[in-house]
Structures are given as structure tokens and as C-alpha cells.
Amino acid sequence: MEETVFLTQHQSFVFSQIRKSVKHGRLAHAYLFEGDQGTGKHLLSSWLAKRLFCTDVTDNEPCGQCNNCLRIAAGEHPDVRLIEPDGQSIKVDQIRQLQQEFVRSGFESRLQFFTIRQADKMNASAANSLLKFLEEPQGDFVAVLETDAPGKILPTIQSRCQILHFAPLNPAELAQRLVADGITSESAKLLAGLTNSYQKAVEISQDEWFNDAKDAVVQWYLYLRKGDLMAFVYIQKRLIALAKEKEQQRLLLQMLMQAFRHERNELLRQSQTRQLLENTRNVQLILEAEQKLAANVSFQNVSEQLVLRILRQTAVDD
Prior knowledge:
Layout: H1 2-10, H2 12-23, E1 30-34, H3 41-53, H4 67-73, E2 80-83, H5 92-101, E3 111-116, H6 124-135, E4 140-147, H7 155-158, E5 162-165, H8 171-180, H9 185-194, H10 198-205, H11 208-226, H12 230-242, H13 246-270, H14 273-294, H15 299-317
Parallel strand pairs: 1-4, 1-5, 2-3, 3-4
Helix pairs in contact: 1-2, 1-3, 2-3, 3-4, 5-6, 8-9, 9-10, 11-12, 11-13, 12-15, 13-14, 14-15
């Protein structure tokens, strides 16, 4: 199944924990799955529901093909419920309806299962209603709360859940997931170097600014590699217009860093020792520029000084 393949590859620790708990009958009543979007929280919730209701379990693995597994996948099993934000929030009426349905035993078995996606978006009334439900459980159920913002979940709710942390995807895994979602390989690799958060990577990729900035930084990098003074002129000509906000300024420098790190990988494959030393110095200069930007030196001053230092170093090496 898709869930098993992804979780085995990318979240082996939490997947192993859940598999052992199911196998030995030690599941908690409530879980809080916390981690970045795209790290597999909902896939594990789906796997767990199928595992609990599957009629043809083999080696602690749901078959994915029986009537129960297919109905869960389609969102049609009467004892498996999904709650998601209604608009901008999860409302108290959604939790109350869930409570009413849980007064009775499951339609087809004693067990009932529910998942709350983006649980951090419960409004205050909904959160308090859920807390009461978890404090005074009725019937046999397993609950999964999913969130990428655990700090927004009431501490009293967290204390009644077993918390499982989903690790961020590593750059190669994140790039692979982004490509699977339709982002070009080139952009996916760049985004994976800018953030380890799937959600943040998607947000950046959907911003029109990203494509303009990506192309501009490629040109800036080429000027720098050639030792061309246009790299200095280009700051005023092109980059300043793209660097209106602090986050944009930071990302421009990080994109430049990724270009030099990609170059480094190529040089390592080719065993180009002299060029590697130059590359290492350039990466260090960019790191120092990032520190100056973080210390509130203006982007223009930081960038112009960076260019002059790289060009001066290139001239010395030549």
C-alpha cells in the first residue's frame, strides 16, 4: 500500500512504534501526530484505521483490498470518521456531532476511529468540547489528532494524548515528494535546499516571486563565476526590486548559496581540488553575508560587499 511504502521509507521510527502497539494490543485511546505538512501524518492515520478494521490482515499489515480497507480509503466506513476545518476553523458543532455518534457502539463493530486534521484550528469551544470527550471517553475508540502547530493545541488535550513526532523529510526525500506533487526537479532541489518543511516549500513554489528570483539568482551566480563586474551592477539593476522584504532578501542569499553548493558537488565528482578551495571560500563569504543581513545591515550593502569580496578572491586565484 502507498501508506506502508512511504512510512517505511520516511517515518520508520513512528511507523514501527504504531505497528508494535497494534500487534501487542497496546494502542492508546488518543494520539497527537505532530510534524510538518507532507511528512506522513495522515498516511499513518489511514494505515492505522485500515489495520484496525481490515478483515484480511497478514504479517501485521492491512490488505488494502478487503471491503473495509476500500471503504476507509473512500471515506465511506461508518465507524471511521474524519473531521476537517469548516472554513477557517473546526467548530464546536462538529465535535458535538462526533460525540453524539459515539454515544452508541460502532455500527459494525465495537470499535470506532476518528481523525481530526489540522487539529490546531479548533476554536476554543471545539477544543474544550473535545477535551471533555477525551476526559470522559464513551465506548471503545481510537482518536488521532494531526497538527503542524502543536503549540496551538491545549496543553490539557496534549496531556491526554500519546504524542508522536514526525521528523522533517531530508532534502532528497523532500525534493522527491515535491516532484511527485508536480514541481519541476530543478525547482524541487532548490526548494529542498531552502527549507526542510514541505508546507513552506509548497508556499514558496506557489509564489510568483519565486520563479523570478530563481532566474535572477542563476544570472547573478553566472556573473560571479565569470568574475564579471556585471555581478555588482546586477544588484541595483535586478535584485533590489526582488528584495523588498526581509524574508525575500534572506531567500535570495540562500538561493545563491545553493548554486555554489551544487557547484561544489560537481567539483567533488570531478576531483577539482583548486576550484574546490575557491568554492569553499565563496560559500564562507555567503555565510558571513547572511549573518550581516540577520544583524540588520541593508541588503544592498551586504550584497555589494559580497560581490566585491568574491570578485577580488577570483582575481587573486586567477
